[in-house]
Design a protein that fits this description.
This protein is mainly alpha-helical. The protein is about 75% helix and about 5% strand. The strands form 3 sheets. The protein has a two-stranded antiparallel sheet.
């Protein structure tokens, strides 16, 4: 009998060990399943964050690389410019200096001729070198050499040479000869393809450099060109588009910091931000063009000084052969200025493209003189006249800009909430809730609160401990003990069942209590998230009201801008040509 009891005791012990092992495995699997569910949600969020960080890192790396390449390219291109066209700077510096030396009589004819010969050798293709030789020969009364030098300069650049001698003769007081060179220049021009030197004509009119006779000649020519080109609808639309872009360039920066909650929750924020920024373009536009039109321009006391300034602009103009390198240099500088943003740099370079085009039509010259005087080398005085001349395109571009942003104002501004809240080792995904901010705020709060409540309770319930599911294996194990062990010894079977059931039941009870505490913590956390969403909704609604007030105030400035642009029509004295309104006052009085 003792042997039987010992054998039975060993079997009960083995069964108890099996039960304990099975219990541990069940607990382990249950924990692993819960961990997998939680980890899956966490992993998704972490992967999304990792992807965003990687994309940001890749973008930053690309911008830095763009800047480094641009800096390298700037050095290479600048060296090429200095190597191929460095001598042009010497010639340009010599030109006006030579004329001033003639005035003072401090340079001998032999020295001037020697300088001209050196410049011809250093710059074999540059038009200004033979032009200076012609001046030196003229001063030395060497007619043969002067004619040969003029012919060579004219062969290299007939347009610039004609203007150069027209200005030089005007500077020397030879009015009739100056006008003849000017007429020769104008007759050779195509208003659809004017050379870059034409900006000197505009500057000469603004300075009154050619006097009354020159003004009449230019008035007739430019009026004819304008009438001819105004029949070209495409050409006019091109100018209107440039004025549209000018207004657009003055739009305000993003207002996300002014309206942080509205920016965070409204799907229409990009549209709201865009139209407010556009409306904020009117005030800087008003300030900018009032300053341009109110600027006083004092003509030079001496005609020679005015002509010297214009000659300086003419001879400082890049030669056509330099333009491709200058264009590339400007683009790479723009890449550096825009911190590697190639698209923004390209847009900036395109906006300044007139600086590097070999030819421009007359209407484009007008617009460029108004919008970007440095691009073609004109002065603020010329800009003032050009802005007035372009008032029709300015008005249409401004009206189109205003019309477009007003049409882009969203008809219905909404708030959208889609929350991913980490809680109790998991993530609660709140489905999208969308509400129109045009509805009463109380109604919106009730709808959003109900949406939260609708999804909070199911999520909290999902965190409850699955007692029934956990008890089922226990019942099966206890039945197994009673059947298997009870067939041998019912007493031991009952003891083993009580021990196993007690231990397992205690584990289930403790875990159920822990799950209940987690549920309460999760419910409290989600209630706080709900209240945060409601506060954000209220703030967004208030910010929308502020946005509407600011938009109305900024948009109201449009009428004042429109009045200013319309007033430009009478801003310039004179008739059809936009640039004939200023001349030398002394000549007008003398006539």
């Amino acid at each position: 009998m003792p042997d039987v009891d010992w054998a039975l005791h060993r079997q009960v012990q083995q069964v108890a060990n099996l039960v304990n092992g099975l219990s541990e495995q069940v607990r382990s699997v249950s924990g692993q399943v819960s961990a997998v569910d939680a980890n899956q949600q966490t992993t998704r969020s972490e992967l999304q964050e990792l992807r965003d960080e990687f994309q940001q890192f890749a973008q930053t790396t690309m911008l830095i690389a763009n800047v480094q390449r641009a800096e390298t390219r700037v050095g290479v291109v600048q060296d090429q410019v200095d190597h191929e066209f460095g001598h042009h700077k010497t010639v340009r510096r010599t030109a006006v200096g030579m004329l001033q030396a003639f005035d003072l009589g401090i340079v001998s004819e032999d020295n001037v001729r020697m300088v001209g010969d050196q410049l011809m050798i250093q710059t074999p293709r540059y038009w200004l070198a033979p032009a200076l030789v012609a001046l030196a020969s003229w001063s030395a009364d060497d007619r043969t050499l002067c004619e040969r030098a003029v012919e060579e300069a004219f062969r290299r650049s007939p347009d610039r040479t004609s203007l150069f001698f027209a200005l030089v003769l005007r500077r020397q007081g030879r009015k009739d000869s100056s006008v003849r060179w000017l007429r020769h220049y104008l007759l050779a021009q195509d208003p659809n393809a004017l050379g870059r030197e034409f900006a000197v004509i505009l500057e000469s009119i603004a300075q009154g450099a050619f006097g009354l006779a020159g003004r009449e000649l230019l008035n007739d020519g430019l009026t004819s060109w304008r009438e001819q080109l105004m029949d070209n609808t495409d050409a006019q639309q091109k100018q209107i588009k440039r004025w549209y872009d000018e207004v657009d360039s003055l739009r305000g920066p993003t207002a996300a910091k002014e309206f942080p909650q509205l920016a965070a929750v409204s799907p229409q924020w990009q549209e709201l931000d865009g139209v407010l920024g556009a409306a904020r373009a009117h005030q800087p536009l008003l300030v900018k063009y009032r300053a341009i039109m109110d600027r006083e321009f004092e003509p030079s006391a001496r005609l020679e000084d005015a002509v010297d300034d214009i000659l300086d602009r003419l001879v400082s103009e890049y030669d056509n052969e330099e333009l491709p390198l200058r264009r590339e240099l400007a683009f790479n500088h723009a890449v550096i200025d825009h911190a590697g943003d190639v698209a923004a740099a390209r847009k900036a370079a395109d906006a300044d493209s007139a600086s590097y085009d070999e030819t421009l039509d007359y209407l484009t010259v007008q617009t460029t003189a108004a919008l970007n005087p440095p691009a073609i080398g004109t002065s603020p005085a010329t800009q003032r006249l050009a802005v007035a001349a372009c008032h029709e395109w300015f008005l249409q571009g401004h009206a189109g800009f205003t019309r477009d942003y007003r049409a882009a104002v969203p008809q219905d501004v909404q708030a959208r909430f889609q929350v991913a809240q980490k809680v109790a080792g998991g993530v609660m995904q709140l489905p999208v809730w969308t509400g129109s901010l045009s509805r009463p705020l109380g109604e919106l709060e009730g709808s959003l609160g109900s949406h939260w409540d609708q999804h909070i309770e199911p999520f909290v319930a999902s965190l409850a401990y699955p007692t029934v599911r956990k008890v089922a294996p226990l019942v099966l194990v206890l039945l197994g003990i009673l059947v298997l062990v009870g067939s041998i010894h019912m007493g031991f079977a009952l003891i083993a069942a009580l021990v196993t059931g007690g231990i397992w039941g205690l584990v289930i009870h403790n875990r159920a209590r822990a799950a209940a505490r987690n549920q309460e913590a999760a419910r409290a956390l989600l209630q706080r998230a709900k209240q945060d969403s409601l506060r954000q909704l209220r703030a967004a609604s208030a910010e929308l009201t502020d946005w509407q007030t600011k938009f109305r105030d900024e948009d109201a400035v449009e009428a004042r801008c429109r009045e200013l642009i319309k007033s430009l029509e009478t801003a310039v004295r004179g008739g059809g040509s936009p640039f004939e309104g200023r001349t030398v006052a002394k000549e007008e009085a003398a006539s």
